[in-house]
């Protein structure tokens, strides 16, 4: 039997405690539950981070070579139908290439020398047609992109899927609350609060990605992504009628 005079009970996700902040009667008991609703969907967008790294004995030569290769890369993206709004520079650096002489017999060491310069230019690209992504990656790599930093997948418009996940979470909570009420010998009076917690889904990691030098396209698989909604609900409860 569950006591209702200012109790505190925590078991298997069930919280039974006075709800002074939710009702005027300090003896009011509540049931608070949390559940996740999950909907799986095939990603429709790939996010690719790629760029060009070039080295030369002078910064000017390295920059010139990098600019030429990056222009070819951007042109290949545009020819493939990637819109300008879906390409954004993510990093640009010019660094000296250092050589550190070995330590001498007397324990001293000459200072490092600059032997050249390295220029790196990277962009983040949103590919809205995953079916063409493999061939596009192969093309930009062949024209000059020599620094592919990662690929992730996402569902571009998650709004309706999140709503499905929310509905699934609420249905789970309602079923679970009825189970606890039946087992614990109390009844559910009314919903006092409902809230949503958790963080938006990050892009799903790529399941497979490897270059095939003699193939027509870079092969990869997008898999599925889970869209998750976490919902919290609190009910006012009372002892079941005898």
SSE topology sketch:
Layout: E1 9-11, E2 14-18, E3 29-41, E4 45-56, H1 59-79, E5 87-99, E6 113-127, H2 133-143, E7 147-154, H3 159-184, E8 186-197, E9 204-205, E10 208-209, E11 220-221, E12 225-239
Antiparallel strand pairs: 1-2, 2-3, 3-12, 4-6, 4-7, 5-6, 7-9, 8-12, 10-11
Helix pairs in contact: 1-2
Could you give a quick summary of the protein structure above?
The protein is an alpha+beta fold. The chain is 24% helix and 42% strand. It folds into two domains: 9-37 and 158-202 and 228-239, Translation Initiation Factor IF3 (2-Layer Sandwich); 45-150, Protein of unknown function (DUF541), domain 2 (Alpha-Beta Plaits, 2-Layer Sandwich), CATH 3.30.70.
Name the overall outline.
elongated
Please name the CATH architecture of the largest domain. Answer: 2-Layer Sandwich
Radius of gyration: 29 Å
Euclidean distance between termini CA atoms: 12 Å
What proportion of the residues is helical, as a percent range?
10-25%
Q: How many independent structural domains? A: 2
Q: Mean pLDDT score, rounded?
A: 81
CATH class of the largest domain: Alpha Beta
| Number of DSSP helical runs | 3
What structural class do helix, strand and pairing data support?
Answer: alpha+beta
Element order: H for helix, E for strand: EEEEHEEHEHEEEEE
Q: Kindly estimate the percentage of residues that lie in beta strands according to DSSP.
A: 35-45%
Number of strands: 12
